[in-house]
Amino acid sequence: MSTSLDHVQTAFEIDPPDIKPWLISGLRSVLPLWLRWQCGITEIEDRYIDRLIDLIQKMNKGKVRCLIAFRHPTIDDQFALFHLFAYSLPKAAKKQGTKFAKSPHCYYVYDRGIPLWAGKHVAWLYPRTGGIPISRGKLDRDALRMIRHYIVNGEYPVVISPEGGTNNHNELVNPLEPGVAQMGFWAAEDLEKAGRDETVVILPVGVQYEYLGAPWEQVDQFLMQLESDCGISKPALRSPTMEERYERLYGLGEYLLDEMGQHYQKYYAAYAPEPKEIVTKSAQATSEVVTATKPEIADRLPLLLDHMLRVAEAHFKIKPKGTFIDRCRRLEAAGFEQIFRTDIDDLNSISPLEKGLADHLAKEANSSQWHMRIAETLTAISGNYIKESPTPTRFADVLQQVWRAVARVKSQTFGRPPYLGDRKCTISIGEPISISDRYAEYKSDRQNARRVVNDVTCDLQHALEGLIFPSK
């Protein structure tokens, strides 16, 4: 059962990993059924898994400390990665005649807010399967110390998403946060202080899904259902051409932007950003600025998202600066500070009046965060992602984000999007990126440290992008 954020609560508790082998064994036995019936994943393929086998062997021999940085397109990635360690890795190692000193597993970093919507059972489960919680959007020193400890001293690799959360696109990588690279250099620093000579590496891992059997009929039904939810009346799609299907989806995106834009202009006009003139793609290459009569979605969307975030930022008195993702994480952290109170140890220790005031503050914080949550779901409506490659998987990626946006606007709780068909998951292991090779330059001075962290982050970005393959 999810946690209500409309009422004040005490601060998040930090539970370090306490892995229970009996629990891992039990989850392993039910994993194939879970993947098939809960996630709709009927096939899993692993590419270049020998690279991971080699690193695990070196780690077991005390030669390497490993951070695994994975692409995070969906909430199902944790189960796919569990399958990698529980099934694919032992099977591939046995096939090539390799024996592990102990059964492979991993520690994994997760957003401390996940148990809020996933339920209390997840809060109990994650630490006992190797989970390390971290709060996004602020400097979580306790979590960072814990992650550093397990990178340097843990018996398993540490798995983390450098995108900071799910990006909901199977064939895109969000701009990476520098945290993973920084953690790698901190680990190298800790090893040097301890007089240890292990090599620190970051291993890029691609996770990607594609639909089997080209489920166009289900995609069309999903599209028409969303049109109906939005009050759009159009004839049924029957054997549409790809152009007709794309035009309907594009029209749905335009309708959503129109409705949301009008809503915010009418009721939140005071928070609107300064209007900008937009140069149309059809404009001649002259020095004049030509204003479009109806700008394309890719031009309009950033202005709407900026407006929506400014409404939430005004409530929390946060200045609108940084990338879209940076702003969302700061808003999330600001909201949680007013919901999960560090200054209240026990809710029973405060008076009913104080509890009532704290509840109202929490409710207002959650309500203000709503603008940010809607903005996050609207980011998929770019107009270009599908146009570049109109596959069922890309259509589904965008439609599922639209579905989440509509559900949030209707104040409906939602979990998994409607089933569109069975999927295949492909996990691709990249080439390790050595942190130790760059450590001398990193520790030379602060300017070099910042530059090297950025360089490693860029290398990791390119490596993860290179692991994406075109879906069918």
SSE string: EHEHEHEHHEHEHEHHHHEHHHEEHH
- What is the CATH-assigned architecture of the largest domain? 3-Layer(aba) Sandwich
Mean pLDDT: 90
Number of strands: 10
Shape: globular
CATH topology of the largest domain: Glycerol-3-phosphate (1)-acyltransferase
Alpha-beta content class? alpha/beta
Count, helices:
16
**For the record, what CATH class of the largest domain applies?**
Alpha Beta
Largest sheet: 8 strands, mixed
Rg over alpha carbons: 24 Å
Percent helix, as a range, is 40-55%
Strand content: 5-15%
Number of domains: 2
* Poorly predicted runs of 5 or more residues: 278-293
Features:
472 residues; alpha/beta; Glycerol-3-phosphate (1)-acyltransferase; 8-stranded mixed β-sheet; two-stranded parallel sheet; 16 helices; 51% helix
Would you mind describing this structure in some detail?
- The chain is of the alpha/beta class.
- It folds into two domains: 249 residues, Glycerol-3-phosphate (1)-acyltransferase (3-Layer(aba) Sandwich), CATH 3.40.1130; 194 residues, no CATH class.
- 51% of the residues lie in helices and 11% in strands.
- The strands form two sheets. Strands 2, 3, 4, 5, 6, 7, 9 and 10 form an eight-stranded mixed sheet that branches.
- α8 packs parallel to α9 and α8 runs parallel beside α14.
- The chain is globular, with a radius of gyration of 24 Å.
- 37% of the residues are buried.
- About 3% of the residues have low confidence.
